[in-house]
What does this fold into?
Amino acid sequence: MTDKNTRKYSSIVVDGAKQAPSRAMLRAVGFDDDDFKKPQIGIASTWSMVTPCNMHINKLAEDAESGANQAGAKAVIFNTITVSDGISMGTPGMRYSLVSREVIADSIETVVGAEGFDGLVTIGGCDKNMPGCVMAMARLDRPSVFVYGGTIQPGKDRRDIVSVFEAVGGHAKKTVSDIELLDVEKTAIPGPGSCGGMYTANTMASAIEAMGLSLPNSSAQDAISENKAEDARRAGEAVMELIKKDIKPSDILTKEAFENAITVIIALGGSTNAVLHLIAMAHCAGVEIGLEDFTRIGKNVPLLADLKPSGKYLMSELIAIGGIQPLMKMLLDAGLLHGYCMTVTGKTMAENLADVAPYPEGQEIIMPLDNPIKPESHLVILYGNLSPTGSVAKITGKEGLSFTGNARVFHGEESALQAILDGTVVKGDVVVIRYEGPVGGPGMREMLSPTSAIMGAGLGNDVALITDGRFSGGSHGFVVGHITPEAATGGPIAIIEDGDKITIDAKNCEVNVDLTFKEMQARLENWQAPEGPRRGVLAKYARQVTSASEGAVTDK
It folds into this structure.
């Protein structure tokens, strides 16, 4: 294939006598004469042995390479980093998690821009590399398909990683023995794949499919399965078709596509991280998405999925009854999705869903629209004198709709976790964890260890937690995160003191401290910003990053 319309970028790199040096180097990595006439497709792999989420992705990258080559392209595999949230959780290393999203987006953009690829397949498995992949795809705006690495199989007794975190809380309370804790540790993670509930990985995979940027069913396949290998192979083929039709991410990532993603993650009971990531992804696509869009859409979209962490079922069990496609068809038929949105199949969302069969009779994972778990969104955007520019709560209804308690304040996650485990935190407390925002962390750590310890200690109904940090998709309970402005920039959460009365009101979408404006201003006058790191990636991040309410991006 010699049509330069299909080699818009690679022809600049390999055509003509002056590009002989480029061709010489490419011959050394496997190109032959015919390959220089083909569109080049980059395969961005997030393979790594640092986490089970990504340990199998090298094989999926090879499958995508095979699909692209069979379709008449020349595929080139390259790698980017990943870090493990589950492993670094509760440690200083977790500060690098959200930072890695920006590094991944920057690195994919850098490689594709430098090498002149005409199209792109990105393959992600863990929480931050998925939005990082999409952010790069949006910035580059070349024909692209995202492939999800797939979900993990459940462990013994349907255990998963959150089972281990909650067992730690039970162990501290003496309800879980040393032997029982070790058994949970050894049996919760049986092999490759992303965490098994509707946590951040499965949430973002579902959102990306709903946006039309991955092939149908990519979000709902087991990591180690023939379906997932075929998904990767077909993604390589699909990019070739997108190149021919000149369909780019900008044709797919419209405002309506992001609204579809928000609708689907609400119905699924997805992670609060989706708010942060979708705003960041929209920024890279040049689309205006903000906290108000989650509130607006959430008023009309019910929570339908009984999935972990707050529900019963695992992603593997949803896969067994058809994944998210029947849910999307249900939402489309109810007028809750924009069916005319273009997708990477070259067809509209409605066309992709036209022949999708409903869920089997008797299944109890996805509730019908007329009998939802909650009639409106579980993702509640809260404002108030504690969060003037917004915060995010996950309220499924099981926690109640309001909580009032006395502040118990901690500068950072570690001291809060210790106080929960040693019994310092008691019924009626509102745990306040601050200086964990994008700037203050730096890096906005996830608070899975404290929230799991609260649940494991049997305090889930009696203790609330608020933070300018984030929550893992595995967190549940009465929790509010992403409080903005954050403490490190002088937000109101910086001046809360032990014993202050805090009220979280999910019905009226407010989070307030019982202090007058005058009292808050007097405390702020005596407040000093903490000193952060002076060099390295965390220092660069802290200098550049925006507020969580703006997606915590670094290129704005």
